[in-house]
């Protein structure tokens, strides 16, 4: 597990071109290539290498060279990170690529010393968060993402993978540093006066309420415990709408550097939280409640469809590919799915809260120019998040989530 | 993680003597040493090296040389096992030795190539199972074993160990092969017609009932799921009374080769199950119910004392050494302890059942010469085990366990 960091150095643009050129069957040796560093993440360099003289940026051969940096940019060089996460990301992409090749970027090559992965360029896609902020719809998304979730989670769990092989998988995906970021930013800081928090002046009173809500803290402690101990399946680990490249026809899940064995509901909750944050963000759209409601209903029905399809697909993989007789125990599947649903609700709520008062916000809400609309959006997210976290252990059906959602909107509008 | 097996070979008696002699400060270079292979386990060679000419076997310098075999003796050479488990055992002993040195054998030396650990000889102790079968009492045992459980489990969990360090610990103690034995022999075989089972003719009807009890199967599936996924603390993993050396003054926990990160209740349940099996085994003692009841009550009050002391010690370690502020969340400790209790009850029951109809029986019941008494003991164990498994998720207090116990005895005596 030790890293050979002696030859490691951050790539230059010229080196990225050389690396890309060495991948066979993409460029001709005589091609004139150019390269841009396009990373907007916090932990990596991302180079896009393509033909110098092409008319359309999106329809020529091109490649991505992604390299891990030994620190997190978001907090300067003072937050050091080992390069091991690049190995985990490339391993996770390869695992997912075997199960759902159509839903992840193709990996051409991984170099451990340089902590570098060469992969398919997806510049013809947009980041889903951006697309949703612009009000776009993705009618195939629920089908695609439920396919991604069902397959990657089922086949990495004890239900779909030989249990001894799975243990070696757990070992391979132990990811202390990236998990630490989640443990602090999602399950700790938002509920206390942490210097990591990033709280709008107008939300200080709301945050004070979060800090004194003991019922909420107990549920967060339990969700955190599960995050720390439940090695249920190989998670993506950071599955927000900024980790999804999308077009109306295609969905590609990227950036699994937070991958580790955790509770299944954590990945599903990440998706739901970010769709609900987008819905809240559309408070700025217009003063016509009707227009906002149409978009919100689109997102809520997407959530319903994701859950129902996930539930259906996961169960059908289970029935068809369950690796042992115990998994067929009467009543076991129903209890298992109910537990996933409850966890999903809890993680959905905790991820909404952290995006409003924690370190890293989302543009869906954070970039709202009108202060009154922004405050409304923030409060909807906090109230909904809090209600979901508090109710997680009692939930029996996805429909209860929508009732809670309705109450949160009403609460903010009538307060 | 690859093993250098090239130089590995099973030790001879002469080699064991040489190894023991190389340990400093135990023998004089001129000492005449003798060696016996005393292993009665299934997976290892155990050599005892001591002075050739000493009057008392138990008060002279001596050492144990324990070597893992690359197969399990219990099922012949056809069940191959890697030698990695010797590394895990020695690692676990060293970890436990730092926390509770008075409760584990001292490790002098570990040799990875030979899969061999040189450790303190405990021949002045007896195996606790044997002592209990003879009707002996160990008044300090509850205090000792609760100390062992509280310290080893607390300080290896996310409550008492830095969470990032703990993840590396999880990685170090991934133990697929030995866990597989538990998964099959405890959570699978006893509930089906497995060729691994070892069922007395007179119990075939009782076993058939186990095989068709769907409510029981569901609970076993959930307990198994937790065994597979819950990385709560570093368990001993095989903590029955055959893994404990004892005298009235001293308790030493040995043989942690099954160590891995699992649910805390699994270790506590192993102790409880074996005390309850011993109680059931005393059905052969005499026709005087009173005598049996005195021994049973001694064992039940030992269980009560173990739980209460464990609960008290674990909570006080938590209050004093909890590594983060989240662990101090109001109500969290109570819920956590209740969950441990429920798991303990469930694992107690499943371990009782497997010792009656599974592959490996216990002498407490298995060696009863009188067939009627043996059948009574077996039925008490099966009924009690079944009732405990079925009730595990509803239990709120250790006292409920004793009520269930009373019912099981009544049930067998009145049927």
Descriptive account of the structure:
The structure is a homodimer of 415-residue chains. By secondary structure, the first copy, chain A, is of the alpha+beta class. Chain A folds into 2 domains: 13-120, Phosphorylase Kinase, domain 1; 126-414, Aminoglycoside 3'-phosphotransferase, Chain: A, domain 2, CATH 3.90.1200. In chain A, 51% of the residues lie in helices and 11% in strands. The first copy, chain A, has helices spanning 13-22, 84-99, 128-133, 141-156, 163-172, 176-187, 204-211, 214-229, 264-281, 289-321, 332-357, 363-366, 371-391, 399-414; strands spanning 33-37, 44-51, 62-68, 107-111, 116-120, 126-127, 233-235, 244-246, 251-253, 260-262. In chain A, strand 4 (107-111) and strand 5 (116-120) form a beta hairpin. The interface between A and B is large, with 42 and 42 residues. Chains A, B: Its EC number is 2.7.1.100. Chains A, B: Homodimer. Chains A, B: This is Methylthioribose kinase. Chains A, B: GO terms for molecular function: ATP binding; S-methyl-5-thioribose kinase activity.
